[in-house]
Amino acid sequence: MQHFWIIGGGKFGLKAAKELCKANPSDQITLVEHEKTVCRQIRKLGYQTVCMDGLQYLDRHLISAHYPDWIVPAIPLHVAYEWIRAKMSARYVIEGITVPNDLVTALPNPINGEIGQLYISIADFKCPESCPEPDEICTYTGKPRSMILHEFLKSIQLKDFKSVVIRSHQLAPGVGGYKPEALFEALKEIKATRAPLMISTACSCHGVVNAFKYSAS
């Protein structure tokens, strides 16, 4: 049995819960959702539910690199970045910055988010919801991928700028997530440098990026 925390109980969070239950009904799934009406609806479906802000829940309860087994972000925020920012804010001043233009032009199909994040994808089409994310061939086109996105992001090297990547693994069709240890490792890597940083969460095809710098408070 594996334990999953799904951050967000809306359309995508509920879809993730259903797909994970379908894959292995014995797994333990906790949905974290802040809207009380949504929480009531989720509970009626039989899911374990925590009714509070998902980012606050992670900040308060994610204290081990070994529990839960997986975190599934399902809210329109860069959850990994927000968790890292919360963990560092007590000792450091965190300042969001713009991803450098020479890097943006190298990223596939970048789209600006509403609060500083950058969404990227090697696909310029809508991917099938049931895509199994095969290693080399795109399910939609039948052709080799132009790149493995999480590997490309990790390989980026810019002067005075560090790239930190959290890989998202496919846990069920259309459901991606990462282990807590990936967050703790990223936090450790970030604290080991004073350079401006680009932090990404990405699978083979899609990702979300934030850039920031920090200094002692």
Report on the structure:
This protein is an alpha/beta fold and 217 residues long. It has two domains: 1-75, Rossmann fold (3-Layer(aba) Sandwich); 77-217, no CATH class. Helix content is 29%, strand content 28%. The protein contains seven helices and twelve strands. It has helices spanning 11-23, 36-44, 54-61, 79-88, 101-104, 149-155, 180-191, and strands at 3-7, 28-33, 48-51, 70-73, 92-97, 111-112, 118-121, 162-167, 169-172, 175-177, 197-202, 206-216. The strands form three sheets. Strands 5, 6, 7, 8, 11 and 12 form a six-stranded mixed beta sheet that branches. The longest helix is centred in the N-terminal third of the chain and has 13 residues, at 11-23. It is globular. 34% of the residues are buried.
Please write out the topology.
Elements: E1 3-7, H1 11-23, E2 28-33, H2 36-44, E3 48-51, H3 54-61, E4 70-73, H4 79-88, E5 92-97, H5 101-104, E6 111-112, E7 118-121, H6 149-155, E8 162-167, E9 169-172, E10 175-177, H7 180-191, E11 197-202, E12 206-216
Parallel strand pairs: 1-2, 1-4, 2-3, 8-11
Antiparallel strand pairs: 5-12, 6-7, 7-12, 9-10, 11-12
Which tags fit this structure?
28% strand; 6-stranded mixed β-sheet; Rossmann fold; alpha/beta; 217 residues; 4-stranded parallel β-sheet; globular
